[in-house]
Amino acid sequence: PAGRILLVGEGNFSFAAAFCDAAAAARLVATCYEAEEEVCGRALAARNIRRLRERGAEVLFSVDCTKLKNYFLPSDREFSCIYFNFPHCGRKAGVVKNRELLAQFFSSCAEVLAEKGEVRVALCNGQGGTPADQPRREWHNSWQIVAVAAGAGFILSNIHPFNAESIHGYKCTGYRSQDKSFHIERALNHVFTQSTPLLPLKPMVCHMELGSRRVSFQVPQMLVDKINRGFLELNSEHPVRTVKEKLTAVLSQTFPIQSIDCPLPLLRQGHISGVCHSDVFWIIPSLEQNTSTEQEQNASTEQMANGLANAVLFSHIDFCGDADENVCVKVQEGTLFSEQYFLRPSLLFYVQTLIERDTFMPRTLGVLCGPVFRKCPISPHSLPVFHEVVFVGAIDKGMESDFIQMLVDSIRNGIYLLHQTVSGCRLNITLQEATSFETTELNKFATSESQVVKIQHSICVEMEASSSCEKGCCVGIVGTACGGAKCSGLVVVFASLNLDLLAMLVCGIADWRMLWTSDERFLGQFLGGKLRLFKSFSLYPPSYVHDISFWVPEREGFNELAFHTIARQVSRETIVSIQLIDSFQHSETARKSLCYRLTYQSCDRALSCKEVSEMQLLFRKKIQRCLHVTLR
Questions:
Q1: pLDDT at residue 396 in the model
Q2: Hey, what's the signal peptide range on this chain (predicted)?
Q3: Domain membership flag for residue 575
Q4: Quick count: other Cβ atoms within 10 Å of Cβ 233?
């Protein structure tokens, strides 16, 4: 690695000497815990120290690796790489003491490591506790190195064998604090990097035109880091946009393409009959009013900066009991709408608007795309926000079956082509007959009869080898929609695809949350809009399991979707699984008790045990207040 290199915990300095031969010695700082007199009394160590100094390396003694900043001036605390080979507390120290040593070491590294630096820790086989150890120890009997490192903000980014034979002159020493060697067969080198911090979310206010009125609304907290990310913009290199562009190019070989560049409003108006209030993100917009004086303008600006608008403290409501603290508590007359609005759950309901435009041309394929928002249970492929692309065409009645078949064949060919350029494993794309339930579930978001659609097929993907998508993962739907007066005599055909799931499928991305990461190492793998297999920069992230049990309120019942939504919000999407593990009804009172198991895990950031414990405590308080459950 370039830059200054720090070696800690050296025994006989044989690793440092070998390293010095392979790298510029002037950049090397080799340290050990023992005093100079003790170390130089060993013949091999004394020879290696002389060799290091002759080559210009810096050698330090009595250095405590848990307090590294104490040994270097502030200007010298920018190491590009820190090595710690086979750390141990000495003698017969157990796993707990060695975990504590590593925890303090990683915390110390964070104070002297360069921004994109690495920490490399070599451990004997089995000590790390990762799946790379073969055989793998039981978790409680390992050093749990990934979880320990997470406490200091580090993630495991690479792991490879420690090949002592390839290090000329290296001799391990220090068995039970003696000048004796120990077994390092199948030892592993763990490479850690610093993760992006989990910053607190600040309230975000969106401004938009709603008809002839200028309005604003507060973005729901769990969507703050997902609004206005620009994945589909022209200069974006995000794989979601690349998949959309390449798929559209394939379809253009069969159909005339008409891109729809008109902005589609984030908000939809109207009461949705038969829809559980918690299925969508409900919004109450606030009218923006011009202030006449400078003092009033400053006050208005200050209010907006704090997520306020025209004396409306918050303008987002959730209808999950009190599932969100965003409740309107002070209203000036005329600042709120009487209508109900919600964030768009699909672009299909803009199809009628599209085909009624003067610029829409029948027998062409119109393309709509953008992010959509739905509340959904926590599962690997349930996405509360994703990018949808809708292909729309109007065809003569009686020709719709042939048109649908051509459209499906083109989409299938496009997905095959995208996948084959990236991955070698076989792909099977099938059409499944849509059920009446699927059509009903989608149409519950329609606010008028003209927006009702009929789903005919689901587009499903099966992978021969393991992949990011489960067997039979649905990535889209095909069907027909109402055409309106302009398309009299024509049938409107559509295909709706989940671009996020397609990007995951094509690039081998196992976790949908990775698409939304702010870590530059994700987009860095897709420079120039080139699709390739994604290589995770966070290996074997630690997971933490917490159980929670409670009595369900007798009158109100229990809204499980609201339970999942609160879990998403409180955990910042770090809960990857919620399982009902027990249900009990009291024989005398008939009260019902539920017990859920929550699994926390981050795909891109360091997540510590302490952070999870704090989230779980907050979650317990939140469901008590919002869902009115009684904790057990």
A1: 84
A2: none
A3: yes
A4: 9
Query: Which residues 6+ apart lie within 8 Å of 209 measured at CB?
Result: 215, 265
Domain match, 588 and 617 both = yes
What's the sign of the alpha-carbon dihedral 205, 206, 207, 209?
A: negative
What is the number of alpha carbons within 13 Å of residue 449 lying toward its C-beta?
1
Round to whole Å and give the CA distance between 213 and 63. 67
The answer on 37 and 71 residing in a single domain is yes
Structural domain of residue 464, as residue ranges?
231-264+346-534
Q: What is the mean pLDDT of residues 341-345?
A: 90
Residue pLDDT, tens place only, 426-450: 778 888 887 766 666 666 666 566 6
User: Which CATH number is 122's domain given?
Assistant: 3.40.50.150
b or e along 423-434 (b: 16 or more beta carbons within 10 Å of the residue's beta carbon)? beeebebeeeeb
Per-residue pLDDT tens digits for 562-586: 999 999 999 999 999 999 999 999 8
Which pTM does this prediction carry? 0.87
Closest CA to 375 of 349, 327, 340, 343: 343
Average pLDDT over residues 233-252: 95
255, 211: one domain? no
pLDDT of residue 561: 93
Query: Which of 491, 492, 509, 488 lies closest to 500, judged by CA?
Result: 509
Assess contact for 624 and 631: CB atoms under 8 A: yes
Q: Do 509 and 559 share a domain, yes or no?
A: no
CATH number of the domain that residue 564 is part of: 3.30.70.380
CB 577, CB 583: distance < 8 Å: no
- Number of helices followed by number of strands (H, E) in the chain: 14, 24
Burial class (CB within 10 angstroms; exposed 0-12, middle 13-18, buried 19+) of 177: middle
Residues 568, 547: contact at Cβ < 8 Å? no
The number of folded domains in the chain is: 4
Q: Beta-carbon neighbour count of residue 343 at 10 Å?
A: 25
* Rounded Cα gap, residues 437 and 364, in angstroms: 30
How far, in Å, CA of 371 to CA of 231, rounded?
9
DSSP 351-380: HHHHHTSTT--TTSEEEEEEEEE------T
- Looking at the fold, whether 40 and 146 belong to one and the same domain comes out as yes
Sheet holding 4-8, edge to edge: 58-60, 28-31, 4-8, 79-85, 113-123, 188-194, 154-161
User: Cβ distance 389 to 369 under 8 Å?
Assistant: yes
Query: CA-to-CA distance for 267 and 564, rounded, in angstroms?
Result: 23
pLDDT per residue as tens digits for the range 24-78? 677 899 999 999 998 888 888 999 999 999 888 999 999 999 999 999 999 888 9
The answer to whether residue 313 sits within a structural domain is no
- Show the CA angle centred on residue 347, arms to residues 341 and 348, nearest 5°: 110
pLDDT in tens, 98-107: 999 999 999 9
Q: What is the pLDDT of residues 277-323, one digit of tens each?
A: 568 898 888 887 654 444 443 433 333 333 332 222 234 444 443 33
**What percent of the residues of the chain are helix, what percent strand, and what percent coil, each to the nearest 5?**
30, 25, 45
Query: Is residue 304, in this structure, part of any structural domain at all?
Result: no
